[in-house]
Design goal:
alpha+beta, 3 helices, five-stranded mixed sheet, Ubiquitin-like (UB roll), 86 residues
Length: 86
């Protein structure tokens, strides 16, 4: 198991009623794609928030991340809606 810090911003924070948490990821959760599957299995609110087709971004340790980005103990993972500049 890997302990990671997870941050939720904007609509995800509101939907999940959580801005941050420390979680223990099971050993099989080694990348962002696996973490999303794990998140969806946490309950109905999580399944809805992270449903396929939902528009959100992920960063790992302050760098934009894709589905194959590897995760490790001590990582900071953030989920947030896309933003636009002006």
């Amino acid at each position: 198991m890997a302990s990671v810090k997870v941050l939720y911003f904007a609509s995800l924070r509101e939907r999940l009623e959580c801005s941050e948490e420390k979680v223990e990821l099971p050993g099989e959760v080694a990348d962002v794609a696996a973490m999303l599957e794990w998140q969806r299995a946490r309950g109905p609110a999580w399944a809805e928030a992270f449903a396929p087709g939902r528009n959100f971004r992920v960063s790992v340790n302050h760098a934009m991340a894709g589905p194959g980005t590897r995760l490790g103990a001590g990582d900071e993972i953030a989920f947030f809606p896309p933003v636009t500049g002006g």
